[in-house]
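Entry for the shared binder. Reason: the reviewer on the internal report wants the predicted structure included alongside the sequence.
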Amino acid sequence: MLPITISIQHIRHATLVVTINGKKILVDPMLSDARELPPVPFTWTLRRNPLTPLPVPLPFFEDMDAVLLTHRHFDHMDKKAISVLNKRTPVFCQPEDQTFLQTAGFLNVQAIDNSLEWCGIQLKRIKGQHAQGIFTRLLGPVSGFILSTAADGSIYLVSDCVYTPAIEETFRENHPEIAILHTARAQLLLGTTITMTAEDILRIRKVSPATKLVAVHMDAISHCTLKRQQLRIFLKERGLENEAFIPEDGEVIAF
């Protein structure tokens, strides 16, 4: 296995800064302060979001080399991010979100159909599924992305995708060195789960045991029912407490 020189700063929820090949890529920027956003529609809670404050000041985001958007839900790119981010910064997205980003004023939007190369980094799009059954269409398209270089290895940003045979096959085929999992057990009305859960960590561990797993998307949005501490207990009870990183808001993990 190649040595890993990737670092991840978990900002909050799905917002990350991935540093690879010397480039800082801001993923899914939700930059609003606590309670500035409305409740999540079609859920059982009326709490305003996010539940936690931004752990870094807004000027922190001025020094980004690129932005990567996995899908356009407000907890992955909000109005604050649109107003704050440099509109000349390259933005990568799934094809369905290109017009939205261009209308928002971003001048260098690159939609990824299958893959592209940027600054020595290969970006490969993995089509995802935000829910099962009828809720799939309601929630709209979502994509994961694998970022890789020959020197740094690969990192799979799975995003808000439920565990499917296609996700399993992606792990079997690619065996990424690192994977970012959204294990929040986010739920809509009637208990419909629309992200991965703690049990999915066990499934992925069996399929790709060498992959370093990072679990995020917890404690910041009201319909996310699995908390960090609950996930730590779940893993510890199974003797797997060292099988996944569970970063706090603002924490940096260097591989």
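Summary line for the report: The chain has one domain: 7-248.
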